[in-house]
Amino acid sequence: MVRDVIFCLQEAATEIILKPSSKSKKLSECLIAPPCGCANPGEEIKCEDCPYLEACLSSIKLEDKC
After folding, report:
1. Rounded Cα gap, residues 48 and 62, in angstroms
2. Tell me: the pLDDT tens digits for 4-45?
C-alpha cells in the first residue's frame, strides 16, 4: 500500500511539473533525452521507473484514443 501511495505522489508531481501545454505530441519526443537520465528507453529496466516517460507515453495514448 505504501508503494501505491508513493507511486500516486510521483504521478501527481509529474503532472504538476509537466503542464498540459508542454506534453509531447509524438513518441519520439518522449524518448529523446528524458530528464530522468535514461539513455535507452524501452531497452533498459531502470527506464521503467522514470515518471517523466510514464506521463509522456500515457498522454500520447490518451490523445490517440480520442
Report:
1. 19
2. 889 888 888 877 776 655 444 677 788 888 888 888 887 888
The secondary structure of 5-32 as a DSSP string is HHHHHHHHHHHHHS-GGG--SSHHHHHS
State how far the Cα of 22 lies from the Cα of 28, in Å rounded to an integer.
Answer: 14
- How far, in Å, CA of 18 to CA of 3, rounded? 22
Question: What is the rounded distance in angstroms from the CA atom of residue 66 to the CA atom of residue 51?
Answer: 23
Number of Cβ within 10 Å of residue 43's Cβ equals 8
- The one-letter code for the residue type at 6 is I
pLDDT of residue 61: 54
